[in-house]
Amino acid sequence: MIKFNTNHSKAVLFACSILVSPLSSAMVDPQDGYLDMGDYLANNAYGFLPVPIVITEPAIGIGGGMLGMFLHESDEERTKRKQHALHSLDGGAELLAPAITVAGGAYTDNGTWMALIGHRHTWNEDSIRYIGGAGYGHANIDVYKRFQGDGLPGFIAPYSGTLGIGTESEGFLMKQRLSFRIPSSDLFLGVSQTYSSFSTAIDSLSLSVNDHNLEISNLGGSSDSSLSALGLVAEYDTRNNLFFPTKARLSLLSI
Predict the structure, then answer these.
(1) Could you tell me if residue 12 is inside a domain?
(2) How many domains does the chain have?
(3) Which residues constitute the signal peptide according to the record (predicted)?
Protein backbone atom coordinates (compact mmCIF):
# COMPACT_ATOMS: atom_id res chain seq x y z
CA MET A 1 0.00 0.00 0.00
CA ILE A 2 1.27 3.47 -0.91
CA LYS A 3 0.57 6.26 1.58
CA PHE A 4 0.74 9.96 0.82
CA ASN A 5 1.69 12.59 3.32
CA THR A 6 -1.21 15.04 3.57
CA ASN A 7 1.01 18.09 3.82
CA HIS A 8 3.06 16.97 0.81
CA SER A 9 -0.11 16.37 -1.23
CA LYS A 10 -1.39 19.85 -0.46
CA ALA A 11 1.95 21.33 -1.46
CA VAL A 12 1.94 19.47 -4.78
CA LEU A 13 -1.64 20.54 -5.57
CA PHE A 14 -0.83 24.14 -4.71
CA ALA A 15 2.26 24.11 -6.97
CA CYS A 16 0.28 22.60 -9.86
CA SER A 17 -2.44 25.22 -9.49
CA ILE A 18 0.17 27.97 -9.70
CA LEU A 19 1.67 26.51 -12.89
CA VAL A 20 -1.54 25.52 -14.66
CA SER A 21 -3.69 28.55 -13.88
CA PRO A 22 -1.65 31.19 -15.77
CA LEU A 23 -1.08 28.84 -18.71
CA SER A 24 -4.75 27.90 -19.05
CA SER A 25 -5.92 31.51 -18.75
CA ALA A 26 -3.44 32.56 -21.43
CA MET A 27 -4.96 30.02 -23.84
CA VAL A 28 -8.63 31.02 -23.38
CA ASP A 29 -10.13 33.95 -25.27
CA PRO A 30 -11.74 36.32 -22.72
CA GLN A 31 -14.39 37.37 -25.27
CA ASP A 32 -15.85 34.01 -26.32
CA GLY A 33 -14.33 31.56 -23.80
CA TYR A 34 -12.88 29.27 -26.46
CA LEU A 35 -9.35 27.90 -26.71
CA ASP A 36 -7.21 30.61 -28.32
CA MET A 37 -3.43 30.95 -28.55
CA GLY A 38 -3.68 34.63 -29.49
CA ASP A 39 -2.78 36.10 -26.10
CA TYR A 40 0.07 33.63 -25.62
CA LEU A 41 1.53 34.44 -29.03
CA ALA A 42 1.11 38.16 -28.47
CA ASN A 43 3.30 37.95 -25.38
CA ASN A 44 5.83 35.55 -26.93
CA ALA A 45 6.11 36.71 -30.53
CA TYR A 46 9.86 37.10 -30.27
CA GLY A 47 11.16 33.57 -30.40
CA PHE A 48 12.76 30.62 -32.12
CA LEU A 49 11.10 27.66 -33.83
CA PRO A 50 13.23 24.61 -34.76
CA VAL A 51 12.06 22.67 -37.83
CA PRO A 52 13.63 19.20 -38.25
CA ILE A 53 14.37 17.79 -41.72
CA VAL A 54 14.25 14.06 -42.46
CA ILE A 55 15.64 12.83 -45.81
CA THR A 56 14.87 9.32 -47.12
CA GLU A 57 15.41 9.83 -50.85
CA PRO A 58 17.29 6.85 -52.39
CA ALA A 59 18.90 9.08 -55.04
CA ILE A 60 20.81 11.11 -52.44
CA GLY A 61 20.87 8.79 -49.42
CA ILE A 62 19.58 8.89 -45.87
CA GLY A 63 20.11 11.97 -43.76
CA GLY A 64 18.62 14.92 -42.01
CA GLY A 65 19.07 18.48 -40.94
CA MET A 66 17.57 21.39 -39.09
CA LEU A 67 15.99 24.74 -39.94
CA GLY A 68 15.72 27.51 -37.39
CA MET A 69 12.97 30.12 -37.72
CA PHE A 70 13.58 33.34 -35.81
CA LEU A 71 10.70 35.78 -35.19
CA HIS A 72 11.71 39.30 -34.22
CA GLU A 73 9.93 42.63 -33.89
CA SER A 74 10.17 45.97 -32.08
CA ASP A 75 8.43 46.71 -28.77
CA GLU A 76 6.03 49.07 -30.57
CA GLU A 77 5.05 46.40 -33.10
CA ARG A 78 4.54 43.87 -30.34
CA THR A 79 2.23 46.25 -28.42
CA LYS A 80 0.09 46.89 -31.51
CA ARG A 81 -0.28 43.19 -32.25
CA LYS A 82 -1.20 42.42 -28.65
CA GLN A 83 -3.95 45.04 -28.63
CA HIS A 84 -5.27 43.68 -31.92
CA ALA A 85 -5.36 40.16 -30.50
CA LEU A 86 -7.20 41.16 -27.33
CA HIS A 87 -9.92 43.21 -29.01
CA SER A 88 -10.92 41.14 -32.05
CA LEU A 89 -12.28 37.61 -32.32
CA ASP A 90 -10.02 36.72 -35.25
CA GLY A 91 -7.05 38.77 -34.09
CA GLY A 92 -4.99 35.67 -33.45
CA ALA A 93 -4.97 34.91 -37.17
CA GLU A 94 -2.86 37.98 -37.83
CA LEU A 95 -0.31 37.41 -35.08
CA LEU A 96 2.81 37.11 -37.16
CA ALA A 97 6.00 39.02 -36.51
CA PRO A 98 6.84 41.41 -39.37
CA ALA A 99 10.40 40.07 -39.50
CA ILE A 100 11.21 36.38 -39.98
CA THR A 101 14.66 34.88 -40.51
CA VAL A 102 15.25 31.25 -41.48
CA ALA A 103 18.63 29.49 -41.47
CA GLY A 104 19.68 25.87 -41.57
CA GLY A 105 21.19 22.98 -43.43
CA ALA A 106 21.06 19.26 -44.15
CA TYR A 107 23.42 16.34 -44.85
CA THR A 108 23.05 12.78 -46.16
CA ASP A 109 25.20 9.66 -45.96
CA ASN A 110 26.34 9.87 -49.62
CA GLY A 111 28.00 13.26 -49.12
CA THR A 112 25.13 15.48 -50.25
CA TRP A 113 24.75 18.66 -48.20
CA MET A 114 23.10 22.07 -48.32
CA ALA A 115 22.97 25.30 -46.33
CA LEU A 116 20.51 28.16 -46.67
CA ILE A 117 19.38 31.44 -45.16
CA GLY A 118 16.29 33.54 -45.82
CA HIS A 119 14.65 36.68 -44.50
CA ARG A 120 11.24 38.36 -44.73
CA HIS A 121 10.56 41.88 -43.47
CA THR A 122 7.78 44.46 -43.68
CA TRP A 123 7.81 48.18 -42.94
CA ASN A 124 5.29 51.00 -42.47
CA GLU A 125 2.38 48.75 -41.47
CA ASP A 126 2.98 46.28 -44.30
CA SER A 127 3.24 48.93 -47.02
CA ILE A 128 6.75 47.75 -47.97
CA ARG A 129 7.70 44.08 -48.22
CA TYR A 130 11.02 42.34 -48.71
CA ILE A 131 11.68 38.63 -49.03
CA GLY A 132 14.94 37.00 -50.04
CA GLY A 133 17.05 33.94 -49.60
CA ALA A 134 20.26 32.25 -50.63
CA GLY A 135 21.55 28.72 -50.54
CA TYR A 136 24.65 26.71 -51.41
CA GLY A 137 24.86 22.97 -51.77
CA HIS A 138 26.60 19.89 -53.10
CA ALA A 139 24.58 16.94 -54.41
CA ASN A 140 25.67 13.42 -55.33
CA ILE A 141 22.68 12.05 -57.22
CA ASP A 142 22.53 8.48 -58.55
CA VAL A 143 19.83 7.79 -61.14
CA TYR A 144 18.88 4.29 -62.29
CA LYS A 145 16.79 3.09 -65.22
CA ARG A 146 15.52 -0.47 -65.53
CA PHE A 147 14.95 -2.01 -68.96
CA GLN A 148 14.03 -5.36 -70.49
CA GLY A 149 13.29 -6.88 -73.87
CA ASP A 150 12.25 -10.10 -75.59
CA GLY A 151 15.40 -10.22 -77.71
CA LEU A 152 15.50 -11.68 -81.21
CA PRO A 153 14.85 -15.45 -81.53
CA GLY A 154 17.93 -17.25 -82.77
CA PHE A 155 20.16 -14.19 -82.38
CA ILE A 156 19.57 -12.30 -79.11
CA ALA A 157 18.31 -13.89 -75.91
CA PRO A 158 15.71 -12.10 -73.75
CA TYR A 159 17.42 -9.54 -71.59
CA SER A 160 16.86 -7.30 -68.58
CA GLY A 161 19.14 -4.93 -66.79
CA THR A 162 19.80 -1.59 -65.16
CA LEU A 163 21.56 1.55 -66.36
CA GLY A 164 22.98 3.76 -63.62
CA ILE A 165 24.28 7.31 -63.91
CA GLY A 166 26.11 8.97 -61.04
CA THR A 167 26.14 12.77 -61.11
CA GLU A 168 27.85 15.35 -58.93
CA SER A 169 26.48 18.90 -58.75
CA GLU A 170 27.40 21.99 -56.79
CA GLY A 171 25.93 25.44 -56.91
CA PHE A 172 24.64 28.68 -55.43
CA LEU A 173 21.15 30.20 -55.74
CA MET A 174 19.88 33.60 -54.58
CA LYS A 175 16.42 35.15 -55.03
CA GLN A 176 14.96 38.34 -53.58
CA ARG A 177 11.93 40.57 -54.07
CA LEU A 178 11.03 44.10 -52.94
CA SER A 179 7.39 45.25 -53.23
CA PHE A 180 5.47 48.44 -52.47
CA ARG A 181 1.76 48.57 -51.65
CA ILE A 182 -0.50 50.75 -53.79
CA PRO A 183 -2.15 53.09 -51.21
CA SER A 184 -5.52 51.89 -49.84
CA SER A 185 -5.38 48.59 -51.74
CA ASP A 186 -4.15 45.00 -51.53
CA LEU A 187 -2.00 45.35 -54.66
CA PHE A 188 1.81 45.39 -54.48
CA LEU A 189 4.21 46.35 -57.27
CA GLY A 190 7.92 45.71 -57.12
CA VAL A 191 11.11 44.27 -58.54
CA SER A 192 12.80 40.87 -58.22
CA GLN A 193 16.31 39.54 -58.71
CA THR A 194 17.56 36.00 -59.33
CA TYR A 195 21.13 34.76 -59.52
CA SER A 196 22.37 31.19 -59.81
CA SER A 197 25.62 29.41 -60.59
CA PHE A 198 25.82 25.62 -60.97
CA SER A 199 28.35 23.01 -62.02
CA THR A 200 27.25 19.47 -62.96
CA ALA A 201 29.36 16.47 -63.91
CA ILE A 202 28.65 12.82 -64.76
CA ASP A 203 30.86 11.03 -62.28
CA SER A 204 30.21 7.37 -63.17
CA LEU A 205 28.28 4.98 -65.40
CA SER A 206 27.17 1.45 -64.61
CA LEU A 207 25.45 -1.13 -66.80
CA SER A 208 24.09 -4.49 -65.73
CA VAL A 209 22.58 -6.87 -68.33
CA ASN A 210 21.64 -10.47 -67.49
CA ASP A 211 24.06 -10.51 -64.53
CA HIS A 212 26.91 -9.06 -66.61
CA ASN A 213 28.22 -5.84 -65.10
CA LEU A 214 30.19 -2.92 -66.51
CA GLU A 215 31.30 0.08 -64.47
CA ILE A 216 33.11 3.23 -65.58
CA SER A 217 34.22 5.79 -62.99
CA ASN A 218 36.22 9.02 -62.82
CA LEU A 219 34.87 10.24 -66.15
CA GLY A 220 35.84 13.86 -65.49
CA GLY A 221 34.53 16.94 -67.26
CA SER A 222 31.69 19.18 -66.11
CA SER A 223 29.04 21.55 -67.39
CA ASP A 224 28.91 25.02 -65.84
CA SER A 225 26.01 27.46 -66.05
CA SER A 226 25.17 30.86 -64.58
CA LEU A 227 22.00 32.94 -64.60
CA SER A 228 21.33 36.52 -63.55
CA ALA A 229 17.95 38.17 -64.05
CA LEU A 230 15.91 41.21 -63.01
CA GLY A 231 12.13 41.25 -63.16
CA LEU A 232 8.94 43.14 -62.37
CA VAL A 233 6.42 41.75 -59.88
CA ALA A 234 2.72 42.39 -59.29
CA GLU A 235 1.17 40.80 -56.19
CA TYR A 236 -2.44 40.86 -54.99
CA ASP A 237 -2.64 39.67 -51.39
CA THR A 238 -5.63 39.65 -49.02
CA ARG A 239 -4.31 36.98 -46.64
CA ASN A 240 -4.73 37.62 -42.91
CA ASN A 241 -1.91 35.21 -42.06
CA LEU A 242 1.23 34.15 -43.91
CA PHE A 243 1.11 30.43 -43.01
CA PHE A 244 -2.48 29.57 -41.99
CA PRO A 245 -4.86 32.18 -43.44
CA THR A 246 -8.54 31.99 -42.48
CA LYS A 247 -9.50 34.23 -45.39
CA ALA A 248 -7.21 34.74 -48.32
CA ARG A 249 -6.52 35.43 -51.95
CA LEU A 250 -3.00 35.52 -53.33
CA SER A 251 -2.05 36.17 -56.95
CA LEU A 252 1.51 36.72 -58.12
CA LEU A 253 2.65 37.82 -61.58
CA SER A 254 6.35 38.01 -62.39
CA ILE A 255 7.97 39.02 -65.68
Answers:
(1) no
(2) 1
(3) 1-26
Query: What is the rounded CA–CA span in Å between residue 69 and residue 46?
Result: 11
Please say whether the beta carbons of 96 and 86 come within 8 A. Answer: no
Q: How many Cβ atoms sit within 10 Å of the Cβ of residue 216?
A: 12
Structural element, H or E, at residue 168: strand 159-181
Length of the chain: 255
Task: For residue 126, count CB atoms less than 10 angstroms from its CB and return exposed for 0-12, middle for 13-18, buried for 19 or more.
Answer: exposed
Residue 89 lies in a domain: yes
Find residue 72's DSSP bridge partners. Answer: 99
Q: Residue 141 CA to chain centroid, in angstroms?
A: 22
Domain around 132: 25-254
In a domain, residue 109? The reply is yes
Mean pLDDT for each consecutive 10-residue tract of the chain (255 residues)? 43 42 55 59 63 90 92 70 60 60 94 95 88 95 85 80 89 96 92 95 86 79 89 87 67 77
149 vs 28: CA distance, rounded Å = 67
Please indicate, yes or no, if residue 8 is contained in any of the structural domains.
no
According to DSSP, residue 182 is labeled P
Question: Residue 14's CB: how many other CB atoms inside 10 A?
Answer: 9
State the Cα–Cα distance between residues 30 and 35, nearest whole angstrom.
Answer: 10
